[in-house]
Amino acid sequence: RQTNRQDQDSLTGIQRNAQRLLHLVNQMLDLSKLEAGKLKLEAVKSDIVAFLKARAYAFSSLAEHKHILFAVELPEEKIGAYFDRDKLEKIINNLLSNSFKFTGEGGSVTLKGQAITQDYKDWMQIQVVDSGKGIPTEEINKIFDRFYQVDSAQTRDQEGTGIGLALTKELVELHHGTIQVESTPGQGTTFTLLLPLGKEHLKETEIIQELPLPAEVTGAEEASIHPSELLVHPQDHSLEEESEKKAEKPLVLIVEDHQEVRRFIRETISPHYQIQEAENGVMGLEMGRELLPDLIISDVMMPQMDGYALCEKIKTEELTSHIPVILLTARADRQSKLTGLETGADDYLAKPFDAEELQLIVRNHIEERRKMRKRFSQEITLEPHSISITSLDEQFLRKVLDIIEAHMGDENFSVEDLSREGGFSRVQFYRKLKALTDQSPSQFLRTVRLKRAAILLQQKSDTVSQIAYRVGFSSLPYFNKCFKDQFGITPGQYASAGQEVK
After folding, report:
1. Residue 301 and residue 329 in contact, taking contact as beta carbons nearer than 8 Å
2. 441-459 vs 426-437: helix axis angle to the nearest 10?
3. What's the pLDDT score for residue 194?
4. Of 22, 301, 346, 418, which alpha carbon lies 20 to 30 A from 211's?
5. Do residues 69 and 29 make contact, with C-beta atoms less than 8 angstroms apart?
6. In the Cβ-directed half-sphere of 392, how many Cα atoms lie within 13 Å?
7. Closest Cα to residue 491, out of 23, 470, 276?
8. 211-238 tens-digit pLDDT
9. What is the DSSP pairing of strand 44-47 with strand 80-83?
10. End-to-end alpha-carbon separation of the chain, Å?
């Protein structure tokens, strides 16, 4: 059948992840074969310069996408060498991929190659130089260890398995060569590979018939391996620009540095919610403050700001403290879960998570907030501490009530004045108050005035008309109408009945 755009994107994502998984499995199999002595060198004599140019070309689209200057410095003349094309391709791919991973936008990666003589032997020297984050001195001796990751902190910038460089070293040594690394933190890293020229170092069983070089790999083919590691900026949609029907859907902010995981979460919950995305914690915090979503789903391990720090800031700022936060992490141990909950997280979900479980958790938190708003809207009094919400939310409501009380008799006091004195933009103030009370600022202002009027009527402190003016109503008929809508009876009937404010 013909697939739509969403189905096509899903299929493309499945294919891309399958390729990455296959690549990882093949690396592990190669390591296993090396250990068992079953991975043999199959060297042919070929032009190594042409081979390196082809591999470099394959990374051109990746460099363009990440806005990284990619330079290739290779000799013009041919250099014949005996090498295993498949294994050298894995070596070069791993080194270049590693450099592009840890080099930010505006940085540079350079592939160099030249024939040199060292220790009375001829060598092909290949270097991959980048201007990336560099490697700490204490980590240098460990980077070729299997499963070791230099960037293993909560805020690691890139993903990885720790297999690539370990396999690279093994494959270089299978070529009877050497590999070294030099790095300065904050300035960059240089990998230097030496492969012996000639064939005196090779066994007869390590040389196979000479075959033509494979066709050059296109940049598009290489890009198909890596796009899931590249980040795209979230769409900058304004809630005010959405249709009325869409605006009725709760807004969920997904904060996740892995593009494929963001897509999976979005597709899992998108039919029922508006979705906004952020690719790291810093962007997530900015968007959380600006959009005031109904819920935030955040990864823990992210660049620049991890999920724990993001959650703590969300929960400790007056503007955002009401927003439920669900933390996602590959660390399912008890201590990691406790750390997440200590930061104020409302829920903690271990990866890999089930789609239905995520849908249920999101729905439950959204529904819980909806019930809280409904209850507060029905039971609102002039004392916010009677509501079971966070202390920061109490402080916010107390401040709003104090401002309204200070201007109670001013009929010209508007929602704009209220939001300005509260220190929020009108949009932020609307979203925060709506999230807590299920009322717009104008509705809330009117409700508080009517509640104050009801107290004054109960105390029989003045006439109905005088009380209406004291709480900011310039029109007595309008006051009577609003009061009846709120309490079900007229102000006069309310005063005569001596009812208590609810």
Report:
1. yes
2. 60
3. 95
4. 22
5. no
6. 14
7. 470
8. 444 444 333 333 333 322 223 233 333 3
9. antiparallel
10. 60
Q: Which residues pair with 192 in a beta bridge?
A: 127, 180
The length of the chain in residues reads 502
What is the average pLDDT across 388-398?
A: 71
Residue-wise over 371-391: b if at least 16 C-beta within 10 A, else e? ebbeebeeebeeebeebebee
How far are the Cα atoms of 12, 335, 488 from residue 151, in angstroms, in the given order?
Answer: 29, 21, 64
Tally of CA atoms within 13 A in the half-sphere of 147 that contains its CB? 2
Assigned token pair, 42: 């199959």
**pLDDT digit string, tens, across residues 120-144:** 899 999 999 999 988 888 888 878 7
Structure tokens at 501: 């404010």
**Helix, strand, or coil (residue 443):** helix
Whether the Cβ atoms of residue 129 and residue 110 lie closer than 8 Å to each other: yes
Residue 76 Rama label (left phi>0; alpha psi -120 to 50; beta): alpha
Cβ atoms of 9 and 174 within 8 Å: the answer is no
Cβ-based neighbours of 377, under 8 Å, separated by 6 or more: 437, 438, 439
Distance, CA of 185 to CA of 183 (rounded, Å) = 6
Q: What is the mean pLDDT of residues 100-109?
A: 90
C-alpha to C-alpha distances, 472 to 220, 369, 448, 490, nearest whole angstrom: 67, 31, 11, 17
Q: Tell me the pairing of strands 295-299 and 325-329.
A: parallel
Provide the 10 A C-beta neighbour count for residue 5.
7
Of the candidates 364, 366, 340, which has an alpha carbon nearest to the alpha carbon of residue 154?
340
Cβ atoms of residues 238 and 267 within 8 Å: no
